[in-house]
């Protein structure tokens, strides 16, 4: 008599994370593009547009760096939507479903690998920003809060990307999520003060998640804890992450290939 091997969550998570990290190293062009595009955009905004944008008492590189970090994390996380859809088209997800692997671990492996990629990309953005004049004055508490907020943002955004990848029909349609990751920050306080926008756009910018997240990060980098922005930011990322997590598990269970 044969018995099925029981799922071992920690081992499964390690295996799935390792698989996705290896996949990333074999697709360096996508990874490098996801990192370099925000860096190039930062250089463009700082040296081409920065002098024409009035951001009050801020040096523009100090104003825009938190936004570029979010942009880089969002774009790197968005590559997960394509990765999971490629696995679905190749039949790999169907294979995982037939094995004694926790469905949460299959998806959480993608999230953990995304966190690792994004830690590297965020560090690179900060180093480049410091080379061109970014001078944060955050203390130990503020840096701790920055890490917590960025980690929560990365996890929530990656789960959202996974859901879009799971429900997409093709890898090309899954890549549309990357457009959202790049587009929404522009309609926030990420690059310009929202007071400079038309009134209707101000309303949207004020109440979409990127504005409080960017404002919270920006204040933290200069040693100020904006409690209102921080609480709203955490509410957004925790709420979005929970909904995306449950939706992704549902899609993984029910969505079939092609």
From TrEMBL:
GO-annotated molecular function: ABC-type transporter activity
PROSITE patterns documented for this protein: ABC_TM2
InterPro entries xrefs: ABC2_TM, ABC2_TM_bact-type, ABC_2_transport, Nod_factor_ABC_transporter
Keywords, alphabetical: Cell membrane, Membrane, Transmembrane, Transmembrane helix, Transport
Broad class of where this protein is predominantly found: membrane
Protein's membrane topology: Multi-pass membrane protein
Domain ABC transmembrane type-2: 29-255
Gene Ontology cellular component annotations, sorted alphabetically: ATP-binding cassette (ABC) transporter complex
Residue ranges of the TM segments: 28-51, 63-84, 105-132, 144-167, 174-194, 229-252
Subcellular compartments: Cell membrane; Membrane
Family as reported in the entry's similarity comment: Belongs to the ABC-2 integral membrane protein family.
Protein name: Transport permease protein
Organism of this sequence: Mobilisporobacter senegalensis
């Amino acid at each position: 008599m044969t018995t099925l091997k029981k799922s071992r969550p920690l081992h499964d998570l390690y295996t799935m994370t390792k698989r996705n990290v290896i996949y990333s190293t074999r697709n360096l062009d996508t990874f490098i593009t996801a990192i370099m595009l925000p860096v190039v955009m930062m250089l463009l905004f700082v040296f081409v547009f920065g002098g024409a944008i009035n951001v009050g008492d801020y040096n523009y590189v100090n104003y825009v760096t938190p936004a570029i970090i979010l942009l880089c994390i969002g774009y790197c996380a968005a590559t997960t939507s394509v990765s999971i859809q490629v696995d679905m088209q190749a039949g790999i997800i169907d294979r995982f479903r037939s094995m004694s692997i926790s469905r949460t671990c299959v998806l959480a492996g993608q999230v953990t690998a995304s966190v690792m990629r994004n830690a590297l990309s965020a560090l690179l953005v900060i180093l480049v920003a410091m080379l061109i004049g970014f001078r944060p004055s955050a203390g130990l508490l503020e840096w701790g809060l920055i890490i917590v907020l960025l980690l929560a943002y990365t996890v929530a955004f990656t789960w959202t990307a996974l859901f879009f990848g799971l429900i997409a029909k093709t890898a090309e349609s899954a890549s549309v999520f990357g457009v959202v990751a790049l587009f929404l920050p522009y309609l926030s306080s990420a690059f310009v003060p929202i007071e400079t926008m038309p009134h209707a756009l101000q309303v949207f910018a004020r109440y979409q998640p990127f504005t409080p997240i960017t404002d919270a990060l920006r204040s933290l980098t200069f040693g100020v804890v904006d409690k209102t922005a921080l609480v709203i930011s955490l509410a957004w990322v925790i709420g979005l992450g929970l909904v995306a997590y449950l939706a992704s598990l549902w899609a993984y269970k029910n969505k079939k290939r092609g």
